[in-house]
Amino acid sequence: MLGIEHIGSAHDKAQLAALLQAAEERLHVGQGLLPLETASGGGRPAGQAVVEGTASLIVWEALRGVYDALGFDAVGDEAFTSLVLGRIIEPTSKADTVRVLTELGVPTPSRATFMRCLKRVVERDYRQVVSDACFAYATRDGALALVLYDVTTLYFEAEHEDALRKVGMSKERRVDPQVTVGLLTDTTGFPLQVHLFEGNKAETKTLIPVLTAFRERHGVNDIVVVADAGMLSAANLLALEEAGFAFIVGSRISKAPYDLAERFRTKGNAFTDGQCLETTRTMGIGKAARERRVVYQYRFKRSQHDNRAINAMIARAEKVADGTRPLKKDRFVKIEGATKGVDWDLVERARFLAGLKGYVTNIPAATMTGPQVTAAYHDLYQGRAVVSDGQVRPCRPPGVPPDPPQHRSPPDRGLRRPGGLAGRSSRDGAEHPQDHPTLRPLRSATMTIGGTTINVPPRIPADA
Question: Domain 142-250+364-417 is of which CATH architecture?
Fold first, then answer.
């Protein structure tokens, strides 16, 4: 024995295999090996480290951890999990999701498995299972006080209507068959429940069924419902009130000249930043008529935004007037016979109301002041960004023909990932992936060294 050299200490089989490889190389330092005499396969010398495979485990395990933390593992369907996470990483078709998962290097179900999974989604009512998990997550620190309801439409490039896809009022001004999607969220924009309606169903007709079903399912009573002006109808507000819901609904600014007529007559439109004005409005007719509390707020920042929008619309109207732009649904365009021009009276009225925003509520002023009403509306309405990614497709319900043509919508429509999946940290403080395109290229490796298989994690950049 010429001497003993300490190579290192091992705490598991993977470290032991690496140390044995290092010791083997140290024994034969500077000495070459004949691959044909000592090959372990593929022409490689025996004992040399071999990469068996790689996978993007960082992004996959991070998303899977969030998925489980939200309680979605209650579904108990690995094919469903793979389909959901694969389409979060890269929104695409069911067939192409197989490609996405294969590139990630994770277990990949076949397209046929995904199709069978979609049948189970309907048969086992996965939507309700996920909704229950969302509710449990949103209420883990206390009961809900405010919820937001919003609606969007998703259209299909299909020639014929069916039981669900109907031609209706389109937010994209299209005449294709569409579906109407109603989404209920909490104060952070976290989704609580999603409903799918026929494409020709009026938005105002979706509100009560969604809220009633939500209350019956979860036993929620004392909540305030916030919705935009699209839900503002006397019948809707009366139905909400009779169902026992408090509400804050955005009001159309066109009502301001009537609601604030006395204020404008005596003091004009001079307001201080953040100033709130209280008034009432009679909504409904006959026995259904109700005096509704209306709160208006002026914001200087909103005034700047409104005036920029007005300037842009004036520019478009002037182009229509001089014939350099075709007439569409442009505001401020006045047509007198064959002559087109700018309606400056309408421009002046719009500037007069710039910066104002109205809210209709049935909550007494003693319970919630005007500033509290506006704050509740705006804090909650940040969650409206949830309804915003045209890549996501709704699951096929019963009665819809198999493999319908892919629908397309602009980027600001659809359903986005819930809060926590896209943010740096969720409300429980746990770190979550902020940008999966950054994490996706980071691939873990499975290696064989001296007959022992080890997993090697990637180096994670500081900005990942």
Answer: 2-Layer Sandwich (3.30)
